[in-house]
UniProtKB/TrEMBL annotation:
Residues 187-358 form the HhH-GPD domain. One of its GO terms (molecular function) is DNA-3-methyladenine glycosylase activity. Belongs to the alkylbase DNA glycosidase AlkA family. GO terms for cellular component: nucleus; protein-DNA complex. Residues 47-58 have a biased composition (Polar residues). This is Related to MAG1-3-methyladenine DNA glycosylase. GO terms for biological process: base-excision repair, AP site formation; DNA alkylation repair.
Amino acid sequence: MSSRRSARLSAASLNGQEGIPAQKESTPPKVANISKKRKNPVEEAVSTLNNDEASPSTPRRKRVTKPLPHVTPTPSAIGLIAAPVGFGDMAPPPINRLTIPNASNATLVTPETHRVFANKPIDQVWPSKVSSVMTTSDNILEEAVAHLIKVEPKLQPLIEKHPCHMFSPEGLAEEIDPFMSLVSGIISQQVSGAAAKSIKAKFVALFNLEEPDVALHKFPKPSQVCSSKLETLRTAGLSQRKAEYVMGLAEKFHKGELTTSMLFNSSYEEVLEELIKVRGLGKWSVEMFACFGLKRMDVFSTGDLGVQRGMAVLAGKDVNKLKASKGGKWKYMSEKEMEEMAEKFRPYRTLFMWYTWKFADVDIISLPG
């Protein structure tokens, strides 16, 4: 009996020293259901290893998504791709030249030496053959516009409101550096037009450190880019991957694997085949370069969501009610529908495509006819 009493007194003295009353043993607070709380990856691995009875789990399969059509940040991206070498009063005057809709009609310059590649001026054509020349840089845009309106009269108000400078005599006289044009296309990928413009300006500034006047900055030559480092290119705002793309493209030009002569004289199919081999240049980028860098009049891109939308509006569809097809690739029109509709605009499908981007923002109710 006395031993029990002494045990109780001993316990009381431990729980209530110096007159502090003993407290009841507190129950642990209820813990919220943490079954959904994500474990630390290391803890999760250790827990799995220590649990011999844990059943093996099959990792969840990643959903494979098909690439969606390119959402074109027009007109900013196209403006960068088509930007001429000269500026202000440095732009060369228009020269009336031979033009062919399904060939290059741009005035190209080599990025290293500024050698010019262009179609022959009319005054250098034999007098006996001048009378047989039908299309020149002075009238190709006029002929193209007339063809578009003849095929689809609904385009006339839009064409009259938005004349296309790129294929005008002045636009065709602008000197295009193909290296600059292709780099601009890479910079424009997956970013807004404003962001692309800012990154390009910073990129150019890296190679004009001794020129305080930004208006006088010159685009770098491929050899200059090759001599720089990826870390330096990234300070302009380029991602690691884009910096690698730009460096790789510069090496192609510097080594002569890509030349201005080849880009100017080759067929569209040959240009497409060669440029798609270059890392960082997808089909859309090459198509845009062919349209607005080489100024070929008969290029058409089915992989552009803006073109899809504009063509759907032109066809009289209510684009706000259309849903993406299975896989999400063709939201407004199928590829077959696009090709069939564009076929009748040959050989001026580039210009037709240019207007579909603008047509995409037009209310179908306001269209005549």
